[in-house]
Amino acid sequence: MLKDTAVDLNLNQQVIQAVKGAFNKKRDEIKSDGFVINTLEASLWSFINSDSFEEAVLLAVNLGYDTDTTAAVTGQLAGAYYGCAAIPEKWKTELAKYEIIKEIITKLYNNTQ
């Protein structure tokens, strides 16, 4: 149990450093290799250095390496900030089962009101 706490504390420190570091790093200093802390930092960096949902996700993808994970996390951050309307329509309509996804989202949203 104590060992787990030490691991948690170390991870918490790594998360804090990733959040702080993402603001100050240059593109070539960002790692997008799939390691959870690096993914968080790369996603924050992409979000911080963009002005739209689309730009944030494209920055994440263009970092290379583990692009799908980094873009997914970046998309969640950017989506929470910019909202669903900011997602390019062409991206939404290309989703498999888009209409079903839209219906589920609408029902979930309506149940929170």
TrEMBL record:
The positions annotated for binding Mg(2+) are: 66, 68-69
Q: Which UniProt keywords apply?
A: Hydrolase, Magnesium, Metal-binding
Q: How is the cofactor bound?
A: Binds 2 magnesium ions per subunit.
Give the family this protein belongs to, as stated in its UniProt record: Belongs to the ADP-ribosylglycohydrolase family.
Upper classification of the source organism reads: Bacteria, Bacillati, Bacillota, Clostridia, Halanaerobiales
Q: One MF term in GO for this entry? A: metal ion binding
Which Gene3D superfamilies does the record cross-reference, listed alphabetically? ADP-ribosylation/Crystallin J1
Source organism (scientific name): Halanaerobium saccharolyticum
Q: Know the name of this protein?
A: ADP-ribosylglycohydrolase
At the top level, the lineage of the source is Bacteria
